[in-house]
Amino acid sequence: MMRLARKHLDWWAVALAVGFMIIQVACDLSLPTLTSDIIDKGIANNDIGYIWRTGGQMLLLSFIGVLGAAGNVYYASTQSQRMGQRIRTDLFKKVTFSSTEEFETVGNASLITRTTNDVVQIQNVMVQMLRMMLMAPIMLVGAGVLAYVKSPRLTMVFLVALPILAFFTGLIMYFAVPLFKSLQKKIDRINLVFREGLTGVRVIRAFNQDQFEQDRFEGANQDYTKTGIKVFMIVSLMFPVITLIVSGTNIGIVWYGGQLIGHQAMEVGNLVAFMTYATQLLISFMMVSMVFVFLPRAQASAARINEVMDLKSKINDADQPLDLNTDAASLTFDHVNFRYTGAEKLALTDVNFTATAGQTVAIIGGTGSGKSTLVNLIPRLFDPESGQIKLNGTALTAMSQKALHDAISITQQKAVLFSGTVRSNMLFGMPDATDDQIWHALDVAQASDFIKEEGGLDGVVEQNGDNFSGGQRQRLVIARTILKRASVYIFDDSFSALDFKTDSLLRQDLRKDEQVQNGVTVIVAQRVSTVADADLILVIDGGKIVGQGTHDELKESNETYQEILDSQLRKGDTVDA
Ligand SMILES: Nc1ncnc2c1ncn2[C@@H]1O[C@H](COP(=O)(O)OP(=O)(O)OP(=O)(O)O)[C@@H](O)[C@H]1O
């Protein structure tokens, strides 16, 4: 928590919050003494002028006290909100610009809770700390000293009241703190079930699992609610206990103070002032305790946020990145081995090939054979265990990730679109593209017809592109990939959602596109018809390249390729390149 506070609070604003708080506390503490003076000097001597003067002073001090409180609230609130905003920005940056592998250990649902709810916990405690944690100790010491000045003997009452108060507060904290900590984990669980329910809503309905999912969510929801009720019941005990102790202390003070007045060892005004100081002292004590009750929850939240911020990305830039030559495109895999973290087996073994500008490399293989793994190494989503990948003659690890990503245009297996318009989605890879360039990319991707029907480039794209069919979404992301000027164009299983005719037309147009032909094209596919016209086909099986060559060469000599070909021809597919 301190680490986050040090990083995200403006210390000048904290200093101002402290300054305003000191003004407020000083005014609050001076009022009981003035009340006592009015009683003992003004009323006792029937001095109306003194009463007016002192009353006026009290009014002025109250007004200054209110200004102090307002100043403190202003800085406490703005600083805690700013702190929240800055933490959220940092978290988002960290998640967006780091490699994905590390975040899998935290999980998406928990990441969202950490960016939202955990940050709110910290904000709430920070505003309390900047108010109560500052006010309470000053008030506690100030009221204690002033009460002692009024009557040292009567101060003994606190020797009884404070330990009782400390005992009950300790008891409440003992039970509440662990529950507060577990609340955050239970919110994670709610988010997880909610997210799964939301993203899988169609599957849930299709399999008639609505009730099962609802029960699962209800379970998580009830678990959170029960813990929440328990913890807030425990905390709410604090108020009656404090009221009881404050009232008990006042009774003690009146009883003992009355005796002192009877023996003329104390004045009435001083007793009234003493009672006010006693209340201020006990309430301050309670406020400090309350912060200590809520602090552990915020500490737990801070630890969860720091855990994300401390995640070290395995993919880093070289100290002095080399420039990337973009004139002559080439892609080389030089004896590349790759293993997923913690996996026993290599996911890719000794992958070796080179492709140059204008060439198309196609990767074909069965499900789980390692096709996506291979292409994911190109944008450095992961780094090889051994061997080297070179882009335009430079090792990927020797250039900056920004230069690398600038030189790659990729369509992932899952078509990802963002809410906005067709144009805003297209400009994602090339912000300065003209409308003509966008229409050309849409033409090549066989997408212009339906885009014209859907309102042109200003047509709305809903979240995830939900207002388009799977095949249309796929064509839109292919167009986005074509639009970007790059050295390597990667299409990871992008043509599988297209019908044979569209697939064939698209590849024909891709071959004619000058910009794409200036780079290397990598196509991942399961259909032989999609890869048949490639310059180099890599047949992959169990992470190994078991054959490479052209369609005609592989058809003659490669057993795995022949098996794939046979199975697809049997199913009635045609190899129409
Ligand atoms: N993040 C991951 N962590 C661990 N293992 C993984 C991960 N992603 C994939 N694998 C494993 O690596 C192997 C290759 O997976 P990959 O996704 O590259 O296959 P693919 O050929 O693209 O399959 P498909 O055609 O079904 O998409 C599989 O055995 C898979 O279980």
Automatic annotation (TrEMBL):
From the record, give the transmembrane residue ranges.
12-31, 51-76, 132-149, 155-177, 231-257, 277-295
Q: What GO MF annotations does this protein's record show?
A: ATP binding
Specify the domain of life of the species encoding this protein: Bacteria
Q: Which SMART domains match?
A: AAA (SM00382)
Compartment(s): Cell membrane
Instruction: Tell me which residues make up the ABC transporter domain.
Output: 331-567
Q: How does it sit in the membrane?
A: Multi-pass membrane protein
- Name used for this protein in its record: ABC transporter ATP-binding protein
The record, for InterPro entries, names: AAA+_ATPase, ABC1_TM_dom, ABC1_TM_sf, ABC_transporter-like_ATP-bd, ABC_transporter-like_CS, P-loop_NTPase, Type_1_exporter
User: Where does the ABC transmembrane type-1 domain lie?
Assistant: 15-297
